[in-house]
């Protein structure tokens, strides 16, 4: 019985690894933009390493994902029902504000944070 459970655990490891969502490797960090929030609102990336964010807009209006305060502008606009990718390499550690700059969206709570470690 112990051997069977061990074998099952060993066989399940590759499946669990494939389903884990961590890091900025592979397809990037997924973000859903809906009316008036980002999910997840907060992301963490590493300074000096390329990051890719995939923003999916599930709302019926245009949204964008804009990081304020980085050395180089980071922003992507996504039409309703569409998905866009953005790649960037933050140069220094810190906490940066993420907003949707469409009129009134930030005030309605469409904000988050990018933590660069």
Rg, rounded, reads: 18 Å
What's the N-to-C terminus distance?
A: 45 Å
Low-confidence stretches: 1-26
Order of helices and strands: HEEEEEEEEE
Number of distinct beta strands: 9
Provide a count of the helices.
Answer: 1
Mean pLDDT: 84
Helix content: 10-25%
Largest beta-sheet details = 5 strands, mixed
Label the overall shape: globular
Structural class: alpha+beta
Q: Would you give an account of this structure?
A:
The chain is α+β, with helices and mostly antiparallel strands and 117 residues long. It is 15% helix and 42% strand. It contains 1 helix and 9 strands; from the N terminus they run αβββββββββ. It has one helix at residues 2-19, and strands at 29-34, 37-39, 42-45, 51-57, 63-68, 74-78, 83-88, 94-99, 111-116. The protein has a 5-stranded mixed sheet with strand order 3-9-8-5-6, with no helix packed on it. The protein has a 4-stranded mixed sheet with strand order 2-1-4-7, with no helix packed on it. A hairpin with a 2-residue loop joins strand 1 (29-34) and strand 2. The chain is globular, with a radius of gyration of 18 Å. The termini are far apart.
Quick overview:
The chain is of the alpha+beta class.
């Amino acid at each position: 019985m112990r051997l069977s459970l061990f074998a099952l655990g060993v066989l399940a490891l590759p499946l669990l690894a494939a389903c884990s969502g961590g890091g900025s490797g592979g397809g990037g960090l997924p973000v859903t933009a809906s009316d008036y929030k980002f999910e997840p609102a907060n992301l963490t990336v590493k300074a000096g390493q390329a990051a890719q964010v995939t923003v999916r807009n599930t709302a019926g209006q245009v949204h964008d994902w804009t990081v304020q305060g980085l050395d180089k502008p980071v922003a992507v606009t996504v039409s309703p029902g569409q998905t866009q990718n953005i790649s960037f390499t933050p140069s220094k550690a810190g906490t940066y504000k993420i907003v949707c700059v469409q009129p009134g969206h930030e005030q309605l709570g469409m904000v988050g944070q990018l933590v660069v470690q």
